Amino acid sequence: MSLFDDHPLTDLDRKAHGLLGDKAVVKSLAQQAAFHRLPRYVSEYLIAKYVKPETWRDDLAKIQAKIAELLPDLEHRELLKEKLLGKGEVTLIDNVEARVDLRGGQRWGRVPALGDQKVRVPASVIEGNPGLLLGGLWGTAKVKYAPEVNADAPNELVAFTPFQVGPPDVAEFRAARAKFTTDEWAALLLQSAGYAAGAFPDRRTRLLLFARMVPLVERNVNLIELGPRQTGKTFLLRNLSPRVFTVSGGKTTPANLFVNLATKQVGILGTRKVVVFDEIAHTSFGDESETISTLKDYMESGQFSRGALHFAADAGLVFAGNVDVDGDQPHPKYAHLLEPLPDELIDSAFLDRVHGYLPGWEVPKITPASVATGVGFVTDYFGEVLAQLRKDSFADRVRAVPLHAGLTRRDQTAVERLTSGLLKLLHPDGNATDAELLELVTFACELRQRVHQQLCALAPGEFKPRLVAPAAVAAHTAKDLQRREAAATQDRLNSEAVVGAATGLAVQVRDGQEVGGDVILIQVSAINGSPGVEVTGLHGGALKDSVRAVYNLVRANFRDFGIPEQRLKSQTVAVHLVKIAESKDGPSAGLAFAVGIVSALANRPVKPGWAFTGEVALHGEVGAVGGLGQKLAAAARAGRKHVVVPASQATAVMGLPEEVRAALEIHPVATAREALALALEA
Question: 235 in helix, strand or coil?
Fold first, then answer.
């Protein structure tokens, strides 16, 4: 019986199998139970090398038997060590990695099946398998126990046969592109990456899947993908290449990311081509300040330093996580589409270095029908070709497409890298038409536009709305971009009176310098419980002290503020500062806190379109604040029409730009009571 009889192939499958020879494999065979304990790229290598179409059943059975014999379970480690000790030699299948110790003049290998046992590696094994030093290789390893050679490290890797291909012929890969139409090539790429092409027939979904692959072919590309669960956000990268490292939640540190100062060993950014932070919402960063600061520098420059050690690397970063959806769009509960990230990553300077945001909510969930069964490139070969394509660049051709004016250098870099990566995937021979090039540039611009829109929502004082698109394109068609654009101009607090919702104003500071103003959205709820105040979402002791001082002011004057005594005694006041891009501290939001707390306890809505700035003393006096002009400009940008300011700064308003004064009605007040009378509905 022929292999093809049991696995019906399409016309494209037969064409690819005939043209690509042993570079292609029938993907369904890699799903055989015998291979489930091996990465897919290893399974496919074994199939392509050892399975013949006419004897495929017997060949698979032989591979299965060999894997069962040589691939030890983790719980059998001690038995394996006993065998090594008793017989003096074992042969096993494992993912072996080597490193060079210059100080000790030795090469050491890591064989996971042997646990923490040190394994010496001869120069001859390294010379024949340099991939052992480049992130490791799967293969058959023969380990000898020789305490007479080195009593402290008696184990030696005496032979290694890799299950992965050597350096591929990239020119041959480029030449193969000309033998397929664009649609055929796109389908072949999907099947090579493990997706059933027929399950993703529309062009846009395919482009989203190809965007996931861009960090493999383009250097130093940083992506975010948030979407529903089970859409395969890391399925592709995790299985496509051993050069990909996945951090699955948990904790990461400067030592494992960058360099271990104790051992001088370079971390994963220097030894992999892509680092994926999966389940990013549950990832923590040890030595948080150092890690994030070093990541920022690396994302910008491709370089990182620790102590006196300095390195350059080209690994891309992918941040993947989950986001709740409503239908086929992100849930409207999100003020911005970066909320699921950890707090330490909600930083505009960090996020501006992200090149693209993939809308994971548009990618269908992975089902059995989504998994490739037809013919594609052998995964290990395919992954190595993609890594080699990193040396190419189509940036010059991308720059020939004019973009809208006003883009930053980071915008332009993002569009160039994303488009160059897509071109390498879909047109590795460089023969894209002008129409195909424009399509890819527009798509790359959309991915960057999504990043920029979130930055505008996070830090409106620093980031202004602009269209990241080719000059020939008037607007992006993605639904979430259109909806967010509308939401930005239809702020609920500008048109609706809401109980417990007040707008404060703040100044943004960079490196000790004031760089603009920002709005702070304050939410207050009165909930049944013991009397008191709970504060969440704030950054800094001064803000928390300001809330407590205002709460004490309200308690002392609750009758004057129209608050029922029983409610004050039986309810806890919960104050939350809606997540914003930069840490805020200082007392100047005290007046906004007072309005929000009284509104919640008295059940009186805050009038629409109002914002507040002013420090509130324990007896209710409203004191002066800094950065008044920047704060008022932020209020105007946010669409607020009325701003309450300290009476002592009323004259300072006259020095503001005419466009700001024309957009706002300024209300100077000397006490919190005056502000409450102005801002709360009866």
Answer: helix
For the beta carbon of residue 548, count every other beta carbon within 10 angstroms: 15
Which among 273, 424, 584, 631 is annotated as catalytic? 631
Q: Based on the number of CB atoms within 10 Å of its own CB, is 45 exposed (0-12), middle (13-18) or buried (19 or more)?
A: buried
**Residue 274: CA atoms inside 13 Å, Cβ hemisphere, count?**
32
Cα distance between residue 183 and residue 198, in whole Å: 12
**175 Cβ contact partners less than 8 Å away, ≥ 6 residues apart:** 429
Rounded Cα gap, residues 673 and 679, in angstroms: 10
Lowest mean pLDDT among 119-123, 272-276, 331-335, 668-672: 331-335
Who's near 270: CB < 8 A, 6+ residues apart? Answer: 258, 259, 311, 313, 315
Active site residue 631: yes
Walk me through the domains of the chain, giving residue ranges and CATH numbers. Answer: 3-70 (no CATH), 74-162 (2.40.50), 171-392 (3.40.50), 492-679 (3.30.230.10)
Active-site residue identified among 588, 599, 641, 648: 588
**How far is 293 from 288, CA to CA, in rounded Å?**
8
Q: Check residue 629 and give its pLDDT.
A: 86
Active site residue 588: yes
Predicted model pTM? 0.67
What does the pLDDT average to over 245-264? 87
